Amino acid sequence: MAHELTIPILPCRSLDDVLPFYEALGFRVTYRQARPNPYAVVRLEDIEIHFAGIEGFDPEDSYGSVVVMVPDADALYHDFASGLRAAYGKVPSSGIPRMLRPRKKLGTVGGFSVVDPGGNWLRIYRTGEADESEEKPKGLALVLLSAARQGDARGDHVAAARMLDAGLARHTSAPAIERLPALVYRADLSVRMGDHAKATATLAEIRGLGLDDAARVELAADLATAAEIQRDLTS
């Protein structure tokens, strides 16, 4: 056998909840029915997802999760972010629905996650082989990796922020090139938790790090994320 195709069917409380969200991401609704049971299909290029409306379903209780492999996860994130900003005025980063920014994780090819209005996770990764030779980070970089596992994979923003605060306090002598990614993630977590004052203060700390040109080149993606967080805070 070859050319097999697997299509997920995800639960939702109402099709009217999920379909506008997916349309904002750039998907097309290719099928919808109300009877005998609510059912719909959305499609974006070769990504196809089916939804079943379930009466009394609570998105907070959803265990729906789909891994989506794409050639360029960063490009897809930016397309999704543009669509969400156009539809909602900003990229939702907390609650349901939400979208988490791209993050490279040890032993993976990197990617990002979307939690849709049904509470279902789309875990989007770049197609390719993970770098098995990558060295395990140390110090503050290791703290950041562990905090991201709590905040992104498990959705526990409070635990992630607590872990990151402890790490930043413990590694005060870490160079700016290590502190900046941790501070950017801390600002991101603050926005997710609705603590805009903490996010603003953290962004100010980032601006005061005094990076040289070489560090700015190396940390370009993190600096772009900081600018995106600032834009969301002021929008």
Observed structural traits:
4-stranded mixed beta sheet; alpha/beta; 235 residues; Serine Threonine Protein Phosphatase 5, Tetratricopeptide repeat; 2,3-Dihydroxybiphenyl 1,2-Dioxygenase, domain 1; elongated
Structure description:
The chain has 235 residues and is an alpha/beta fold. It folds into two domains: 9-126, 2,3-Dihydroxybiphenyl 1,2-Dioxygenase, domain 1; 139-234, Serine Threonine Protein Phosphatase 5, Tetratricopeptide repeat (Alpha Horseshoe), CATH 1.25.40. The protein is built from eight helices and eight strands; from the N terminus they run βαββββαβββαααααα. The protein has helices spanning 15-25, 73-88, 139-153, 157-170, 176-192, 196-207, 213-218, 220-234, and strands spanning 9-12, 28-33, 39-44, 47-53, 65-70, 98-103, 111-115, 121-126. The strands form two sheets. The chain has a four-stranded mixed sheet, with helices on one face. Strands 5-8-7-6 form a four-stranded mixed sheet, with helices on one face. β2 (28-33) and β3 form a beta hairpin. α3 (139-153) runs parallel beside α5 (176-192). The longest helix is centred in the last third of the chain and has 17 residues, at 176-192. The N and C termini lie far apart (51 Å). The mean pLDDT is 89.
